[in-house]
């Protein structure tokens, strides 16, 4: 059965970015706004963010948005667009105060200001050592952001379609006119007709086997956009967070190092002193993740294994219980390790997509190097690439990206909706999706999707991970293409219509395969090392040939075509990056 709905504005995703956009759509302009989310909104991955949100409030020491911008540009390995970074760092101060006014319960300084702590790559006086810039609510900052934004959405009359999975975006006559969604409870398809759509579906860490990302982070937004001819930007830049729980990938926030925790190898040595003499354990994430891999490769992993220790024992029980309560709980529950008394076994974990759907600073999707937009189509949050993170994101800058560009995209969408009429729907908008769903259900015997997914994740982890080289990436490409062929015969065991999560997992696997292919193709294409993209066969950054963004498009034959667009540089000329 097919249902039809009409709205002014649709937001796909009930995470931090989506809900911030929805607040601005509904509050300022009273537009009819709906948020469509495959999860109940407060279960979105934003809720897992622990460490904090960056803003140069200067509550505990001198700080300035310009310093924040410098750190972000340097952290990005000079690939971030500097106009966008300046906008984000400038608006950071105001947006954090806005969150406070919405009711977000930040941790406090003794005199009642928002508390701030140091984080990797954030410095004072442009590189002179760590600065306290991360605003936090204990180690539950993302959780508090989600709760606060959800309450404000409800207050403003935003309508929610929870457990509706968007499976296609409708483009007609050169503009976006809505989405097609699958209702998880019934298996029905819904056509959401609207003047504009904001894709805010979060990340896609599930293309890797060891990841901090939730099961739902399958990149549905970028995948549907890609299949409708929208390019994806800088997909080769995927961040590995240095400290995931060994074998599980569950994140231990950088806040532990921000509070003074240190990394140690098998000899008990604080090895980051060798790799980053000034910032040490608080160097940027790509630098620390590579250092850990290097230690393990040279046999200094704990007991020769593929992990090192994160040692927070000397912080004392009081600091740990007050500032890092959830982390302490995770370690006790999952590892049987009490971080008050013992070091935590950690390894790098796939964490954050710097790349995604290309947008300008107003969240409009931009498809080429001339700034051509698709009217009515927006993207925000981890799904989007503005690009404020370039080759490597600094901790605390994602939550910031969500709220700054969630807000900006909401404002711009509102203006657009006030002017625009409702475009006409494409003919038979559910045809392609319905046919593919039927096909998946009709396969009687074959391989389970979980087997293909595991092979994909292992391949990406081994060959398109922290270190990369030509031969491995070619193998990864071949493997992904083989898996795409095998996907044609995967079998969905549950043939029912209600809560058919089997079917949806198979659907999500298709998204993961498409995104993995674009990631591997973009990585193979970029013949230099920059930020998180670290090639053993091209170990140096090459500004002469590669100071440019990648735009990858899916060809009609299913292959990947690569194009480029320039990086915007305003005040910070590219320099060598030393921490
Ligand atoms: C464990 C962890 C800790 C982190 N800690 C920090 C931190 O301390 N500071 C920081 O700055 N960043 C942190 N990050 C990164 C940051 O939290 C994420 O990048 C950010 O929360 C992503 O927000 P989002 O709104 O883009 O997406 P999400 O919060 O992931 O929300 C995505 C939404 O899209 C919906 N959705 C997805 N697919 C579909 C579909 N097909 N149809 C309908 N709805 C769909 C989901 O239901 C969900 O509501 C952390 C990330 C992780 C994984």
The second-level CATH architecture of the domain at 431-561 is Up-down Bundle
Beta-strand percent range: 15-25%
Secondary-structure-based class equals: alpha/beta
Helix content: 25-40%
Mean pLDDT: 96
- Find the count of extended strands (DSSP E, 2+ residues): 20
What distance lies between the first and last C-alpha atoms, to the nearest angstrom? Answer: 58 Å
CATH class of the domain at 431-561 reads: Mainly Alpha
Which hetero ligands occur in this complex?
Answer: flavin-adenine dinucleotide
* SS summary, helix count: 16
Most strands sheet: 8 strands, mixed
- Radius of gyration, in Å, reads 22 Å
Low-confidence stretches: none
For this entry, give a set of tags.
single chain, 579 residues, alpha/beta, Flavocytochrome C3, Chain A, domain 1, Methane Monooxygenase Hydroxylase, Chain G, domain 1, eight-stranded mixed β-sheet, four-stranded antiparallel β-sheet, 16 helices, 20 strands, 36% helix, 21% strand, globular, binds flavin-adenine dinucleotide
């Amino acid at each position: 059965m097919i249902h039809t709905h009409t709205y002014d504005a649709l937001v796909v995703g009930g995470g931090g970015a989506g809900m911030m956009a929805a607040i601005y759509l509904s509050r300022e302009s009273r537009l009819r706004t709906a948020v469509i989310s495959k999860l109940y909104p407060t279960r979105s991955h934003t809720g897992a963010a622990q460490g904090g949100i960056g803003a140069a409030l200067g509550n505990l020491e001198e700080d300035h948005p310009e310093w924040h911008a410098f750190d972000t540009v340097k952290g990005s390995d000079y690939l971030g667009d500097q106009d966008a970074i300046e906008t984000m760092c400038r608006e950071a101060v105001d947006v954090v105060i806005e969150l406070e006014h919405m009711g977000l319960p930040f941790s406090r300084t003794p005199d009642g200001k928002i508390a701030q702590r140091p984080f990797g790559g954030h410095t004072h006086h442009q590189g002179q050592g760590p600065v306290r810039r991360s605003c936090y609510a204990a180690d539950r900052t993302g959780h508090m952001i989600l709760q606060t934004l959800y309450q404000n959405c409800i207050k403003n009359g935003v309508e929610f379609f929870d457990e509706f999975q968007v499976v296609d975006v409708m483009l007609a006559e050169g503009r976006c006119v809505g989405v097609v969604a699958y209702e998880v409870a019934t298996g029905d398809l819904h056509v959401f007709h609207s003047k504009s759509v904001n894709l805010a579906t979060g990340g896609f860490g599930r293309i890797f086997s060891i990841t901090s990302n939730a099961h739902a982070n399958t990149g549905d937004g970028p995948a549907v956009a890609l299949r409708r001819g929208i390019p994806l930007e800088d997909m080769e830049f995927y961040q590995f967070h240095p400290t995931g729980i060994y074998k599980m990938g569950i994140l231990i926030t950088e806040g532990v190092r921000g509070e003074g925790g240190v990394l140690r190898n098998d000899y008990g040595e604080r090895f980051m002193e060798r790799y980053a003499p000034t910032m040490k354990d608080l160097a940027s994430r790509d630098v620390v993740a590579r250092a850990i891999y290097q230690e393990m490769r040279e046999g200094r992993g704990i007991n020769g294994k593929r992990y090192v220790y994160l040692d927070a024992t000397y912080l004392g029980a009081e600091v740990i219980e007050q500032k890092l309560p959830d982390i302490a709980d995770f370690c006790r529950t999952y590892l049987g390790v009490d971080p008050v008394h013992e070091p935590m076994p950690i390894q790098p974990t796939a964490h954050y997509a710097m790349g995604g759907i290309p947008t300008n600073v107003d969240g409009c999707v931009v498809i080429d190097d001339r700034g051509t937009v698709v009217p009515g189509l927006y993207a925000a949050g981890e799904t989007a690439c503005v690009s404020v993170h370039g080759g490597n994101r600094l901790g605390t800058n994602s939550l910031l990206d969500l709220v700054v560009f969630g807000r900006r995209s909401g404002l711009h969408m509102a203006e657009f909706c006030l002017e625009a009429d409702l475009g006409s729907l494409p003919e038979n908008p559910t045809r392609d999706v319905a046919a593919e769903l039927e096909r998946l259900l009709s396969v009687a015997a074959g391989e389970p999707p979980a087997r293909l997914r595991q092979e994909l994740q292992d391949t990406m982890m081994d060959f398109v991970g922290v270190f990369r080289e030509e031969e491995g990436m070619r193998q990864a490409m071949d493997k992904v293409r083989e898996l795409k062929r095998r996907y044609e015969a995967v079998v969905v065991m549950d043939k029912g219509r209600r809560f058919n999560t089997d079917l949806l997992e198979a659907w999500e696997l298709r998204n993961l395969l498409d995104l993995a292919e674009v990631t591997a193709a973009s990585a193979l294409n970029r013949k230099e090392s920059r930020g998180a993209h670290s090639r053993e066969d091209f170990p140096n950054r090459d500004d002469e040939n590669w100071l440019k963004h990648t735009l990858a498009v899916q060809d009609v034959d299913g292959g990947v075509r690569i194009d480029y667009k320039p990086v915007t540089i305003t005040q910070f000329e590219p320099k060598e990056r030393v921490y």
